[in-house]
Design brief:
The complex is a heterodimer. Chain A is mainly α. Chain A contains four helices and no strands. Chain A has one domain. In chain A, helix 1 runs parallel beside helix 3 and helix 2 crosses helix 3. The longest helix of chain A has 19 residues. The N and C termini of chain B lie far apart (62 Å). Chain B folds into two domains: 85 residues, Rna Polymerase Sigma Factor, Chain: A, CATH 1.10.1740; 82 residues, Orthogonal Bundle (Arc Repressor Mutant, subunit A). Chain B is mainly α. Chain B is built from nine helices and no strands. Classes of the chains: A mainly alpha, B mainly alpha.
């Protein structure tokens, strides 16, 4: 497997949609190629960090205010 | 028999479909439940696209109102959430266009770039790189980094990786083909990785201090 082929499979590997055989091939490549191993680990970490850190929280008071406004507009329109 | 087709591959009706049915029958409290279920997600998506808090507040209101008004058009062959996200994305783009005084805004903007499609920074990260920053610093880094992505990559990453929509749902919500979503997702992930690398590199001596030996 080449690094270009590895890169084409990166998303499938991260999303766990590769077959067992392909996964073995990919893992063998990563074992030999530390660059691809770094790309895999850091890309997966990138996703994890974005998933676990809430960047735009909706504060409870704003949430309630918007909620009231939405329901009032819906009732008015219906 | 319900008049709405169940979601493909699922035997049971999604609970949202029952709520939609109740709203259609005139029970507005069921809509209240739907709003509370998805308001945080809609707000986040709107913030990611508009990058403006006030716009996101307006988008959230407009999207839920529009969804309510158009509820008769909801077919039930997609999830209610996917359908709602599509409305929220369109409302967000409209809001951006307004702010740019009529200039066309689309999710195809700037996607032709080749930047970041090949990894360049190949140095490893620290074991728990986010631990090197406090929560405020980390939030700023993550916001700044994702805001630097082209529009059409950012929205795909947000829907697929942050909000957890499937590839098919993301394609449906954005009106894109599945191959387009896949190609944008890979490039979004790689570009974010590349940009975060400058903050998260393993620092000299760090591994030894944390007792985590450098591999190889």
């Amino acid at each position: 497997m080449t690094c270009t082929e590895f890169l084409a499979l990166l998303d499938d590997l991260i999303d766990d949609t590769v077959t067992t055989e392909l996964r073995t091939e990919i893992e063998q490549h990563m074992h030999k190629c530390s660059h691809c191993e770094v790309v895999f680990n850091t890309t997966r970490k990138t996703i994890e960090i974005y998933r676990s850190n809430e960047l735009y929280e909706l504060p409870p008071d704003l949430r309630e205010r918007l909620h009231t406004a939405i329901m009032a507009r819906c009732k008015k329109g219906s | 028999m319900p008049t709405i087709q169940p979601i493909a591959g699922e035997n049971e009706l999604h609970p949202d479909v029952a709520l939609v049915e109740r709203v259609r029958a005139g029970d507005i409290s069921a809509y209240d439940t739907l709003v509370r279920k998805y308001d945080r997600q809609v707000f986040r998506i709107a913030q990611h696209i508009t990058q403006n808090r006030e716009d996101a507040e307006d988008v959230m209101q407009d999207a839920f109102l529009k969804a309510y008004e158009k509820l008769d058009q909801f077919q039930g062959n997609s999830k209610f959430y996917t359908w709602l996200v599509r409305i929220a994305v369109n409302e967000s783009l409209m809001r951006l266009r307004k702010r740019r005084t009529g200039k066309m805004v689309s999710i195809d903007e700037d996607v032709e770039t080749e930047e970041g499609s090949v990894p360049r920074d190949l140095a490893d990260w620290a074991p728990d790189p986010e631990q090197n920053y406090n929560q405020t610093e980390l939030g700023e880094i993550l916001r700044k980094t994702i805001q630097g992505l082209p529009h059409g990559f950012r929205v795909v990453f947000v829907l697929r990786d942050v909000e957890g929509l499937s590839t098919d749902e993301t394609a449906e919500a954005l009106g894109l083909s599945v191959p387009a979503v896949k190609s944008r997702l890979l490039r979004a992930r790689l570009q974010l990785r590349e940009r975060l690398s400058r903050y998260f590199h393993r620092k000299k001596g760090q591994a030894a201090r944390k007792g985590d030996g450098v591999k190889k």
